[in-house]
Design brief:
- The complex is a heterodimer of chains A (129) and B (390).
- Chain A has helices spanning 11-18, 70-73, and strands spanning 2-4, 23-27, 32-34, 48-51, 55-64, 78-85, 90-96, 107-116, 119-126.
- With 129 residues, chain A is mainly beta.
- Chain A has one domain.
- The longest helix of chain A is centred in the N-terminal third of the chain and has 8 residues, at 11-18.
- Chain B has 390 residues and is an alpha/beta fold.
- Chain B has a domain at 6-113 and 224-385: Thiolase/Chalcone synthase (Peroxisomal Thiolase, Chain A, domain 1).
- Chain B is built from 13 helices and 13 strands.
- Chain B has helices at 23-38, 58-65, 82-96, 151-166, 170-189, 203-208, 236-240, 258-261, 278-285, 303-312, 321-324, 337-340, 347-358, and strands at 6-12, 47-51, 72-76, 101-109, 130-132, 211-213, 216-217, 226-234, 247-254, 295-298, 331-332, 370-375, 380-385.
- The chains are: A mainly beta (129), B alpha/beta (390).
- The interface between A and B is large, with 40 and 47 residues.
- The structure holds zinc ion.
- The site of zinc ion has 7 residues of chain A, from loops.
């Protein structure tokens, strides 16, 4: 299993995930949303954490069939998805299995997968119709 | 930019899967061959340029070749666009009189040492889990836990979005990709230094290549390989008395996209529309048209890159490359490219354009007059010709 090893700066993202919340970064100065990897806005202001509604649209996906390293060889096939949150930032997650019937643009919603007692991964999946 | 700077020497190490050599040994091998090809002596070289992430320092090269004074040593920080950056920087330096004979090189044990196509395995914790940390697009904390392990996965995302955006059916996309792969594999069979020289592939063989990240197969991804390339750029003085037919650097341009180096897939549109209009402006400056270009080198990190670059560079409309590729009217990656010759990040494509414009290529295009290069996903382009730029 590959699990995130947060920095002091990104810890709140994973702590929130364990509580069932998807966090994004937000600039209070210019009211813009940012990907969680960013600590500062392009305006220079430090970003704060703000909860996302957890909904978005599928930008693209790819089904990975080939284990690119031993840790991943146990997991194939899996489907990597890129979802544009309604707030704007694009979040990459994955679903176990081959989901070749996904369609770009489809509505997605986040869920939370507790992969170890201490690690929870946000995962986007198709929103129920 | 100098209109008289020319490439007069090229050199390649043997390309291999496991060189058994150090990167400096391979670099020196390629550089010595390039200097000899140029008809120069090592003592004539007064400039050395490389990719910023090359492990072979200019000072080490100079020392090994007995160059006592290097007037100009320079690194390109343009990542996958560096082959063009170096061409342009060398031509500019020649024009400014900063140097008279510049060697540009790239040496990379990209299979036996650092495989970019495979996420390296970071340490496991006590529970046996692999820890993904940092902001890397491949194997970082926001990507590694989801199996985003290598550029191939990002190219899969790009390709699915491309098909969707243009309404391209999967079988049509596969046919286009298969055409690119099989053609370059065929070119490679006549290139004695190409790593896939003994591995021709027909469409059936292509369809049997294992699926990596849909719709891309293993055969759609560039090689992981060991080797080195070098070329020598000079001004008028040396070009006029060169043993070889000089290949002039007519022009170059680039537009660095930060996301290309950072979060590779986080573009507003996939595949990213990069360098739109850049090639048109470049060609316009010289009153030539896309049709005048006889041979093209495209940084084929994936076969699909060829499609996107043709569109971004204006060789055809958006979404049209899947059809255009059947008969593109232009020879592309005639050495086998990064898919079938070697993965030297576009430097081998420069060498192939020089061979073509000298009339000495393994898959020679008749009367090749203009060659163009597109690297880094159309972030950087260059125009070369055996004719002096008028
Ligand atoms: Zn701001």
């Amino acid at each position: 299993m590959i699990i995130p090893s947060p920095s002091a700066d990104t810890k709140p993202y994973w702590q929130a995930a364990a509580q069932g919340a998807l966090m994004l970064r937000f600039c209070e100065a210019c009211a813009t949303w940012h990907h969680p990897r960013h600590a500062h806005c392009i305006c220079g202001a430090p970003l704060t954490w703000r909860q996302s509604g957890g909904k978005g649209a599928l930008v693209s996906f790819t089904v990975v069939h080939y284990g690119l390293n031993p840790a991943l060889a146990e997991q194939v096939p899996y489907t990597i998805t890129l979802t544009r949150c309604d707030e704007g930032p694009q979040i990459l997650t994955a679903m176990p299995g081959d989901h070749k019937t996904l369609r770009c643009g489809m509505a997605m919603t986040v869920s939370f997968d507790r992969v170890t007692p201490t690690v929870t991964l946000p995962r986007f999946q198709p929103a129920p119709a | 930019m100098s209109q008289t700077a020319a490439i007069i020497g090229v050199g390649e190490s043997d390309y291999s899967w496991a060189s058994g050599k150090t990167e400096i040994d391979m670099a020196l091998n390629a550089i010595r061959l390039a200097i000899a090809d140029a008809g120069l002596a090592a003592s004539d070289i007064d400039g050395l340029m490389r990719f910023s992430f090359d492990n072979v320092a200019q000072s080490s090269v100079a020392e090994a070749l007995g160059i006592t004074e290097v007037r100009l040593a320079l690194d390109s920080a343009s990542g996958a666009s560096s082959a063009v950056t170096l061409l342009a920087a060398a031509a500019s330096a020649i024009a400014l009189g900063q140097a008279e004979a510049i060697v540009c090189y790239r040496s990379f044990n990209g299979r036996s040492m650092l495989r970019l196509g495979h996420m390296p395995i970071p340490p496991r914790n006590e529970e046996g889990n692999v820890l993904a940390e940092g902001a890397s697009p491949f194997g970082g904390e926001f990507t590694g836990p989801y199996g985003m392990a290598a550029p191939s996965c990002a190219f899969g995302l790009w390709a699915q979005a491309y098909m969707q955006r243009h309404g391209i059916a999967e079988d049509k996309m596969i046919r286009a990709l298969g055409t690119i792969v099989t053609r370059q594999r065929d070119y490679a069979t006549r290139n004695p230094n190409a790593l896939m020289r003994d591995k021709p592939m027909d469409l059936d063989g292509y369809l049997k290549s294992p699926m990596l990240a849909t719709p891309l197969r293993k055969a759609d991804l560039c090689l992981e390989s060991d080797g080195a390339c070098a070329f020598v750029v000079v001004g008028k003085k040396y070009a006029q008395r060169a043993k070889t037919r000089p290949v002039y650097i007519w022009d170059a341009d680039q537009c660095l996209s930060p996301n290309y180096s950072n979060f590779f897939f986080d573009f507003a549109e996939l595949p990213p529309r990069i360098g739109i209009g850049m090639m048109d402006r470049l060609l316009c400056r010289h009153k030539i048209r896309h049709d005048d270009i006889n041979v093209l080198g495209i940084y084929d990190a994936s076969s699909s890159s060829v499609l996107y670059d043709l569109e971004n560079l204006g060789f055809c409309g958006f979404g049209e490359a899947v059809e255009r590729i059947a008969d593109p009217g232009i020879a592309i990656n005639t050495s086998g490219g990064l898919l079938a010759e070697v993965y030297l990040q576009g430097m081998n494509l420069v060498i192939e354009l020089v061979r073509q414009l000298r009339g000495q290529a393994f898959n020679q295009v008749k009367n090749a007059r203009f060659g163009a290069l597109s690297v880094g996903g159309a972030q950087a382009v260059a125009l070369l010709s055996h004719e002096v730029c008028s």
